[in-house]
Each structure stands twice: as structure tokens, then as C-alpha cells.
Amino acid sequence: MQNIVILVSGSGSNMAAIVRAAERDNWRKLHDARIAAVISNRPDAGGLKLAAAEGIRTDVVDHKRFDSREAFDAELARHIDAHQPALVVLAGFMRILTPGFVARYEGRLVNIHPSLLPAFPGLHTHQRALDAGCRFAGATVHQVTAELDFGPILAQAVVPVLPDDTAATLAARILTQEHLLYPRAIADLLPAL
Ligand code: NHR
Ligand code: GAR
Fold first, then answer.
1. What's the pTM value of the predicted model, to 2 decimals?
2. For a pLDDT cut of 70, what percent of the chain falls above it?
3. How far is the CA of 145 from the centre of ligand 2 (A)?
4. Of the ligands numbered here, which is closest to the C-alpha atom of 167?
5. Which candidate, 64, 55, 53, places its Cα nearest to that of 9?
6. Would you state the pLDDT for residue 105?
7. What digits encode the pLDDT tens for the residues 106-142?
8. Which residue's CA lies nearest to atom 33 of ligand 1?
9. Which ligand lies nearest to the CA atom of residue 40 in the structure?
């Protein structure tokens, strides 16, 4: 069985899209894969309730209880490794990960970032795309490496920027595409793991 562990920090809509795609497309039969657990660094993340409602195991490793990134990442890795994952998926996960953590999961750690990388790594991507006058924006699924939002690109989706867009309207248009893109990119990756 290929176990997938999903890390979230917020509302978890990408996580929910992956869970629904796994059910709809029967990843159990097709890829011998399942979503084994959803882990959040925030106890109040909406994604935890969504996952629990789907019958998925949930877990919290609160980064505020640790005084270094290394200590947080070590505890996070311990909770992840309990599920012996073939793949670790960042879905709106908001903590930068240490090089040691990234090395542990090399080749089986992926992220979705709400910009057309290599443009706009880091935070506040939608406002930065608007400020730059971009006519197109989008999302990127990439392998996670030690360098933030810089790992090999696996898939991208493009949306137009419309004249009256705000960061919020652009984010919503991109998020709709993320929900299609991320499950597809993961399904494409599973046979290679
Ligand atoms: N870690 C590594 N090593 N490499 C990547 O490519 C990573 C990563 C951790 C998270 C997601 C990423 C995104 O898609 C991601 C990619 C958080 C921050 C950030 O600045 C930046 C990028 C991403 C996620 N976080 C602040 C921090 O100090 C905290 C912000 C907050 O809590 O709201 O960790 O954009
Ligand atoms: C998504 O747009 C995701 O790409 C982005 O946050 C949103 C999370 O939504 N990720 C980052 O900005 C990572 N730094 P979700 O929790 O509903 O999936």
C-alpha cells in the first residue's frame, strides 16, 4: 500500500480535492494508494475537520511548542514516519522546512504554490502578480527542495488576470484550478514511486 500523508495549515481545500479525487478515481485499486493521514501545524486548521469528516486520521504538531525549526521538523518527521509514507504532500502548508527534513523525503515531497514559478516564490503571490502587471497567473506543483519554491516543476495551470482583479478574486480563480491540477499531478506521480 502506498501511503500518502498530507500536511496542511489552513482551510484544506486542496487536501479535500485530493481526497475526493482518490475516492472518485479509486486510487486504492488503480495505484494501491490511500490518504493515510492529514497533519497540521495549526490546531485550529479547518482542514483537520474536513479530513476527520472523511474518516481520515488527523494529527497536530503545533510549531509554537518548539523553540527551533530543527526541533519542530524532527517531531513532524516522527509523526509522518508513523505512516510509512510513499509520498508527503504540502497543501497550503505554511512553515518553511529545514534542509534535513527535505533530504529525508527527497523525491517524495511535493508542494503546490499559487504562482507560475519561477515567478513569485514565497508569500503574497497574487498581489505581487497584480503589481507586476502580469496578464496571466496560475499555480505550480513542484518537488520540494531545500531552496524555497525552487524544486523541479511537475505541473502548472494558467489563468488570465482580468482588469478588475483584486488579490482575492485572482486567488479564487487560481484556487479552482489548483483543485484540478494537484490531484492530477499526484496521480501521475504515484506509479513512479
Ligand atoms: N520548505 C522548503 N524547504 N522548500 C519549499 O519549496 C517549501 C518549504 C515549505 C513550504 C510552501 C511554500 C509556498 O508554496 C513550502 C515550500 C511558507 C512560506 C513562509 O514564508 C513560504 C513559502 C511556502 C510556505 N512561511 C513562514 C515561515 O517563517 C511563516 C508564514 C506563516 O506562518 O503564515 O515559515 O508558498
Ligand atoms: C492555496 O492557494 C495554496 O496554493 C496556497 O495557499 C492556499 C491554501 O488553500 N499555498 C501557499 O501559499 C503556500 N505558501 P487550501 O488550504 O484551501 O488548500
1. 0.98
2. 100
3. 18
4. 2
5. 64
6. 98
7. 999 999 999 999 999 999 999 999 999 999 999 999 9
8. 94
9. 2
Beta bridge partners of 47: none
Can you tell me the distance from the alpha carbon of 154 to that of 111, in angstroms, rounded to the nearest whole number? 10
- Ligand 2 atom nearest to CA at 174: 2
- State the distance from the centre of ligand 1 to the C-alpha of 135, rounded, in angstroms: 25
Q: What residues are annotated to the active site? A: 113
Report the distance separating Cα 126 and Cα 134, nearest Å: 10
13: Cβ below 6 Å to ligand 2? yes
Residues in the chain, total: 193
* Gyration radius of the chain's alpha carbons: 16
- Domain total of the chain: 1
110 lines ligand 1 (CB under 6 A): no
How far away, in angstroms, is 13 Cα from ligand 2 center? 8
For position 14, which CATH number holds?
Answer: 3.40.50.170
Bridge-partner residues for 38, per DSSP? 6, 58
Q: Which domain holds residue 182?
A: 2-192
Q: Which ligand is nearest to the CA of 10?
A: 2
Tens of pLDDT, residue by residue over 24-76, are: 999 999 999 999 999 999 999 999 999 999 999 999 999 999 999 999 999 99
pLDDT in tens, 72-106: 999 999 999 999 999 999 999 999 999 999 999 99
pLDDT score recorded for residue 119: 98
